[in-house]
Amino acid sequence: MTDSGRKGMGDKASEKMTPDSSKSTLDKAKEGVTDMTDKAGRDAVPDDQKSTGQQISDKTSREKNSSGNSGESMMDKAKDTLGMNK
Question: Residue 77 belongs to what domain range?
Fold first, then answer.
């Protein structure tokens, strides 16, 4: 089950399976915004306050993101940008 305000795993899978070439500019922009919102929600709410399905999805997402960057969460990057992590 997806937590309120979060992208469901079905939506994520559907977006990944649809080639970018068949998406409109509006669809691509919407996906970008909802991806950022979902990542912010992933990092803002502690795992113990999420449904089991959301915990699994978020853990997978964090692992995927950490393998491709410095391992900082989106929330950490935002705090760094605002000077709040010092």
Answer: 60-86
